[in-house]
Amino acid sequence: MRRRDQIKAIGRQYRQSVFLAAAVGALTGLVVAFYDELVVEHMLKAVLEAPLWVAAFMPLVGLLVAAIIVQWVGGSSTETADAYIRSFHDPNRDLDHRPLLGRLAASVATLGSGGAMGLEGPSVYIGAGIGSQFQRRFARLFTFDHPKLLMVAGAAAGVAAIFKTPATGAIFALEVPYQGDLARRMLLPALVAAASGYLVFVSIEGTDRLLPVTGAPDIFDLRDLGGAIVVGVGAGLLARGFAKLIREAKALAQRTHPYLRALVGGLLLAGLFGICRAAIGESLTLGPGFDAVEWALDPSRGVGVLLALFMLRAVATSATVAGGGAGGLFVPLVVAGALFGRAVGGIIGAVDTTLFLVIGVAAFLGAGYRVPLAAVMFVAESTGRPGFVVPGVIAAVAAELVMGRSSVSVYQVAASDEPEEPAQ
Hints:
The chain is mainly α. It has helices at residues 2-48, 52-74, 81-88, 100-112, 120-137, 149-163, 166-175, 187-205, 222-255, 258-279, 290-296, 303-322, 330-347, 353-368, 372-383, 389-403.
């Protein structure tokens, strides 16, 4: 009887957590909408419309401001998504709320000035922070073994909101703590929070698709499917290099004086901006990079210039990270995958350049963050074209097989039943 009562109590608490997850998601969606409006529509838009010499040096200003903020408010680290992953694996430690406002302010300075990172990292951090606060406030409802449940739900809502992809948000929050597993017994709260976060966000920002691609392939020939394997293997190998570059940039940022790293990183970004303007005629090294994806959709772009932009964006993201910038790596992986996939499509003479661009996203994102399931779902939701899923799955699996133990996050572990040791 005692065992039966315990099971009933756990079930009742779990149902209560679902309702709390809906509230966490809604609040996260509201805060992320405000964050997105501030960073993208006001700050970044002003940078992109500024005179070229101003735009070139604004990332330097942003990195210096971020360094000042973090030093005086948020401690010594600018981790956002990594902070979520690290907290997930520490059962005795809640998400540290002391540096929350400082890191978010540093991310506003970084991303609003044109730093080459994404808004999803701060969005995950916002949601995880809100979820942790809810879990602490309603701790009496969580006597069973789910100390991170609402933190995961909040992270799911953050991704769902900023990308307008509810299923991707839930899957990413469950998948990203591990390299080959999913967080267990947290699915329903994550789904509910992702849905409510998405609904609140799109009611404010609209439902426009994130990736403006066209076409919905229903039948694939051998060149398409073989090309998906080629893209997957190539993306996996390049993602290993990209992950190593990012890890080295993070390590460099940790051992370098904040103002020195901001100065060097900002000057490097200014140089990359000048090279991009001279070689391509566009300011495509600034900001998260979705304008680079839209630029790559033009079928007239040559393979050489696509690969050149791939390298410029990879170095720009690394410079932003090494300079102490606060932001996410999900979007840089998406942009890198789009450029690489589009280049492969050009090499093999594919008529449908959109197809290879999209499967490049699935492969590079899935490999770099070790989230193949979330990557494939992201492709389907962000394009509104589920027909891309099959080649996306092939490419993501191929990329995962050659990725090894590499990842852009050092805090992931291999699986939930293995010792909690950081990935290499």
